[in-house]
């Protein structure tokens, strides 16, 4: 039996082991390369979406809000809804409340 020659249908275990080992190594490095690439993309997206977010000029937003509180303007002209400056609106509310209190005092016996 020592002179047994390999037949064409015999398994070449050395080649199978070699291909298995090389395939395992290639798969191992491919998985780590994909993980590293994914981490790199995640880091760059984090920089773009979180770190490099353009600043909104809050001063201009506050100025627009302050202007809206200090000017007369139409909100809905068809329904006759008007925006009144906040100072004038507070004066109107105070006057209305004072009139209600005067009427309530005069109605009491």
Topology:
Blueprint: H1 13-51, H2 58-69, E1 73-76, E2 81-83, H3 86-107
Antiparallel strand pairs: 1-2
Radius of gyration: 41 Å
Low-confidence stretches: none
Taken in chain order, the helices and strands follow as: HHEEH
Number of domains: 2
The SS-based structural class is mainly alpha
The quaternary organization reads as single chain
Helix content: 55-70%
Number of helices: 3
- Biggest sheet record: 2 strands, antiparallel
pLDDT average, as an integer?
A: 86
Strand order of the largest sheet: 1-2
Distance between the termini: 132 Å
Q: Any idea what the shape is?
A: rod-shaped
Based on DSSP secondary structure assignment, what is the total number of beta strands? 2
**What portion of the residues fall into strands of 2 or more residues?**
5-15%
What does this structure look like?
The protein has 109 residues and is mostly helical. Helices cover 67% and strands 6% of the residues. The protein has helices spanning 13-51, 58-69, 86-107; strands at 73-76, 81-83. It has a two-stranded antiparallel sheet. It is built from three helices and two strands, in the order ααββα. The chain has two domains: 10-54; 58-107, no CATH class.
